[in-house]
Amino acid sequence: MADTTRLLFLRHLRGTPTVWVRFQQRGRTRKEGTGQSFWYRPLTAVLSEVPVDDRELPLMFHARTADFADVTVQATVTYRIADPALAATRLDFSVDPYRGQARARPLDQVATLLTELAQQPALDLLARVPLADALTVAITEIRETVAAALAAEARLSDVGVEVVSARVVAIRPEPEMERSLQTPTREAVQQDADKATYARRAQAVEQERAIAENELQNKIELARREQQLVEQKGANDRRKAELAAAADLAAAQGTAEKARTLAAAQADRVRGVGAAEADAEAARMAVYRDLPVAVLQALALREIAGHLPEIGQLTITPDLLTGALARLADGDR
To answer: What whole-number distance in Å separates Cα of residue 53 and Cα of residue 42?
Structure first.
């Protein structure tokens, strides 16, 4: 709306680029147009303000399809007042000259007229199509039909209103009917989801089976390698035992051979010593054989004396000396 200011008994109006203003005084037009600014006397001034900007009118109405299904249509109509001078004469766009406020609500009348004019072609079209078509292909037809009907409507041009565009936002059935219509799609989607779930589970089971088989094969391979290791270890132990036994045998044979050699050498040495001792004894006996008896007795005494313990003091009695001398004398004879 335009701005009004007060100065004593005068008023000043300042319009905007989107508001068409008409100032009449005593039946004559003084000012009219958009972006007007002027002084006036409230007692004699008649003011009209008509908005000329594009306005959006949301529409919502109920309709029935050919198969008797109730639907709700949501649409939007964009319009503007193309001939504000004509609209100011057909509708009450007057403004209180003292306060600058509109006396009536003419745009509500325009909205009611547009709503009624837009509903009729949409109702006629929906009454000829089933619900499934109304929710799919009929949206474009409804939009074109409503736009064409509003553009050709004479009552709108009579009040200076021009329809810029008409859009159908949505066509919705009743909630229960909508759920029923969505059920096949939901079931199909659920079936696809179930198939995907089953496929995922089957793939998981297959992967688990493959993993289990791999683990089993790994265990079998590990057991086989352990068996080979045990067998190889047993073979190594047997080989080690055989080598140890062979080494012990060789050592024993060497020891026995050494012992035999030492025994033979010892026997040879003993035989040699014995032979030498026998020869020496034979030579001694040969020497003794030719000696007198007294000499032999003296040698025997010396030999005995060599084996007797040490005598610190010797006491010779007359009896001992007499007997010895007697035996010595007998020997000389």
So the answer is: 27
